[in-house]
């Protein structure tokens, strides 16, 4: 858990975070990926039959600071307040401020209706080393954690490595303008069935992903304007965590701009 006392110098990093993973190279390579959309939102798909999985990758630039993106990702129990397809979201275990296990239910089209997802989420601070903040996600082994009673009635889906969210600070579009962040999300999904129905693929690629993108933009544009909104309140409750992320993102951006002249 993060210490309640005066934070350590920012160069020491975030307490409790794991080392950066070695399997994020797939974020920078297009080999094997099919591009579905390529405008302000780049959306790609890849079938991994040897793993019984489908991979989805989304890339976009957002007019918001890194700490706001990290807050949206970290505050999992608030997902239903801005994503109508997430019907429930609960933290099952909290090992420290950036290392949790959660269970959520997601609405999908008939006849499946609702699926359940359990996953570990681990924050990795590599802002000083690589200029980015990484959240890795992966479903725990079956039976490793007790699920809510309601989970018995849900079809289960699982996340495989290297499912992740990566946030990289970018300079403002104009001097003195709004902070920006490059957001990269990769999901490697085991749907629990051998052949994923075409209508589910269409739903994910054509409806769910664009909806989440637009919902995130809407939240970033409005939710942080008033301090009594859920996300700003939560940032205040975890002030040390998000202040460290903010400072380190600013330092990483300054270092990048210095290198680029």
From TrEMBL:
Low complexity biased stretches: 13-22
Domain of life: Eukaryota
UniProt xrefs under InterPro entries: START-like_dom_sf (IPR023393)
Region of interest (Disordered), ranges: 1-29
Xref: SUPFAM superfamilies: Bet v1-like
The protein's name: START domain-containing protein
């Amino acid at each position: 858990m993060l210490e309640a006392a005066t934070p350590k110098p920012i160069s020491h990093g975030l307490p409790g975070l794991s080392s950066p993973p070695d399997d994020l190279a797939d974020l920078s390579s297009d080999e094997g990926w099919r591009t579905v959309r390529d405008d302000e939102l780049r959306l790609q798909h890849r079938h991994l039959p040897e793993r019984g999985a489908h991979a989805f990758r989304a890339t976009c630039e957002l007019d918001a600071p890194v700490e706001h993106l990290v807050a949206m990702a970290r505050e999992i129990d608030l997902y239903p307040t801005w994503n109508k397809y997430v019907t429930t979201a609960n933290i099952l275990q909290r090992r420290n401020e950036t290392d949790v296990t959660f269970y959520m239910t997601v609405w999908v089209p008939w006849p499946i209706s609702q699926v359940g997802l359990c996953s570990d989420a681990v924050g990795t601070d590599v802002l000083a080393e690589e200029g980015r903040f990484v959240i890795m996600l992966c479903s725990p082994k079956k039976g490793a954690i007790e699920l809510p009673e309601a989970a018995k009635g849900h079809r289960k889906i699982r996340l495989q490595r290297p499912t992740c969210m990566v946030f990289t600070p970018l300079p403002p579009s104009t001097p003195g303008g709004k902070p920006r962040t490059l957001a990269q999300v990769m999901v490697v999904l085991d749907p629990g069935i051998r052949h994923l129905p075409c209508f589910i693929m269409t739903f994910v690629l054509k409806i769910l992903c664009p909806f989440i993108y637009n919902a995130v933009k809407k939240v970033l544009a409005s939710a942080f304007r008033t301090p009594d909104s859920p996300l700003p309140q939560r940032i205040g409750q975890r002030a040390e965590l998000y202040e460290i992320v903010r400072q380190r993102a600013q330092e990483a951006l300054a270092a990048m701009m210095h290198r680029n002249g």
